[in-house]
Fold:
Amino acid sequence: MQLKRKKINIQIIVKIWITINRITKRVLYYFIMVFVSISLLFPVIYMFANSFMGEKEIQKNYGALMTVNDSKKAEPEYMSFKLIPDPVSFMQYYKALLRSPKFLQMFWNSCLLTLPILLGQLIVSTLAAFAFSKFKFPLRNVIFFMFIIVMMMPFQVSLVPNYIILKKLNLLGGYLSVILPGTFSTFGVFLLRQFMISIPDELCEAAKVDGASSMRIFLNIILPQCKGALASLAILVFIDNWNMVEQPLIFLKDQAMYPLSIFLSAINGNELGIAFACGLIYMIPAVLIFLYGEKYLVEGIKLSGMK
Amino acid sequence: MKIKTKEALTGYAFASPIIAGFTVFFLVPFIISIFYCFTEGIGTLKFVGLKNFNSLLHSSSFLLAVKNTFEFNIVCVPLIMAISLLFAVMLNKKLKGITYFRSFFILPLVIPVASVILVWNIMFDQYGALNKLLVFFHITPVEWMRSRWSFWILVIVYIWKNCGYNVILFLAGLNSIPKDFYEAAYIDGAGKFACLKAITIPLLAPTGFFVFIISIINSFKVFREAYLLAGKYPYKDMYMLQHFMNNNFYNLSYQRLTTAAALMALFILLLVLALFKFEANNGRSLDKGAIKKKKNQHSNNS
Structure:
């Protein structure tokens, strides 16, 4: 009898110990994850919080950022992380959106560069991906291999060649000098080909037997199945080009044509007061896409990693 | 034969826009630039043989840039792969709220660099917030951007930005491993670490291969952050090959730039060829072999 009771006691203790162990593990897990998440989100939260500060507060907090290079102060004033604005002010947004025509112009410039590239690349790469996944032609694999290599190269490698060609074609300085090379980026072909390969060839064969032309097959069979992949590509291309800095800096001659990314990276003392709001507004399209298109973004990334 | 030619022609027709664009904006210019590597002066071309290569290989700034770029890759790529694999394993569970955590990993990917560069600046400035923290704890402040730390700042920014991409790829890879492998191993009495060693890592090798390539590609893109943080002439530890090329472009030394670009392109080409060769030889057999081994073990035991 006693032996039995002892056994039960031990069982209960072991059970409790296991539960405690599990709970500690879980708590530790969530603790790590929350910590990592906060550090990942920190820059965004920081921009958001600071965008509601008044100009005086910004100058007081971050004035050192601009004056450091001018003179060596005897007693440096350090900047501090400040997350809670005091008082909350919409001054930055008001100034950026209504009092600073330059800002809106540059936001528009960003759109003027990104949207044509997006549209162009979608059209060009769907057509090409169809060819590379469903037709056999001489040099097909060689060309595709070149596409992949070019895709991997940093922008600076093709800087001079691009510059020379754009000059020859008399495009230098205009928006087309950024838009055209961007349109013919080979990433889209690579990504969509990955997807189109998974569409069974039998579908195309059957349509061909029924007398459909290649264009019909493309429009009626392939395209409807590619909707998701196209959305993924669109998101990836948008993010990549919205982020663009080097190309416009080099190929555009007129500063009035620069996109917002360049403006933001070269912000100086006078504009520091609106910098946070500008940065945040610039983020908004990307964040919206993330919120509504996260599924497609994830699919696109997965697709890029498939073989 | 006729059908074949027709198919080829249709294929070319659909591919013609990209082939034309690719030829005009990448292929032809690239051939021209290779031509420049062996000549002197853009206006009047004079053949000089390997002189450009020779002077480049003796230029200290080029060697510094090559050294830093290599160093950055050697440090960053294994580091980001380990970190993202760790988080992918941690996120590959069915727990409450886990989808939010996954989303937070992806967010830095979509945030434009230019928007958050201000935050990095405030953090790492000589009189920045991080130094204030150090002073508060009575530690001597560090000149983050003017010391060895600048290299590590670049590493941190790179990992912050690119970790999510790799986590997604690893997660997809982890999901493609059949669950019954783990069950079989569990029945056999294998621990968590043994599972990781015998099942997860070998079966994840193909994904790992791709993540490796993507990490290298993305490491070239970190120039944008470096450029926005520290401008054209950063501290010597941050000076990458792209800085070298970019600066030579502005100094109009096109020969040096194209020569450096050709060398870099050649290196990437060889790297990719070697990787694919390696993958074709080892990768496939590795993962098929692993599956077979597991299956055999399983059937032997049951």
